[in-house]
Design a protein that fits this description.
Blueprint (H helix, E strand, L loop, with lengths): L2 H11 L13 E8 L2 E3 L11 E9 L5 E8 L4 H10 L11 E8 L4 E8 L2 E6 L3 E4 L5 E3 L6 E6 L2
Parallel strand pairs: 1-3
Antiparallel strand pairs: 1-2, 3-6, 4-5, 4-7, 7-10, 8-9
């Protein structure tokens, strides 16, 4: 049997799986990581409703940065985030579900991520260490201002 015929027989016995494109995002957002803030994150609770967005995250700062976004259960969860940060902020022990994670990025680097925003309170942090405080505790970029909360409405 010729090789082409064998290939057709093989395809008829084991058809390839259909590849379905993922749904298009509802909107897109540009997020710039700067020293020590997030530019482009929503700041007004009424400006963001539940949806899927495509985020282009760019390190526009001079230092290494990363993004960790947690979806909090309620506003009292912010206290648990602060306690978690004091204990070393291990992602494995995060006090809330991780909604977005972007690993450490060098200055000038960018990446695109699809983000599903469900109703609730979010906190976005950069936990890259910067040094130690007077008490010997690690000071990260979140302690220097690279922490922001926002609300997603239904």
């Amino acid at each position: 049997m010729p090789l082409a015929s064998l290939a057709l027989v093989a395809l008829s016995l084991h058809p390839p799986a259909l590849v379905r494109p993922s749904p298009a995002p509802d909107s897109s957002r540009q997020i710039a990581l700067v020293n020590y803030a997030f530019d482009g994150l929503p700041t007004d609770a009424s400006s963001l409703t539940a949806r899927t967005e495509e985020w282009t995250v760019r390190n526009a700062g001079r230092a290494l940065h990363h993004v960790l976004m947690l979806r909090l259960r309620d506003s009292s969860s912010l206290a648990s985030v602060e306690a978690w940060k004091r204990q070393g902020a291990s992602e494995l022990l995060a006090p809330a579900p991780i909604a977005l994670k972007v690993d450490a990025m060098l200055p000038g680097a960018s990446i695109v991520r699809r983000v599903r925003l469900e109703p609730g309170l979010y906190v976005v942090l950069c936990l890259v260490p910067q040094g130690r405080g007077a008490d010997g505790a690690i000071v990260d970029h979140a302690h220097l201002g690279m922490q922001q909360t926002f609300v997603v409405s239904p």
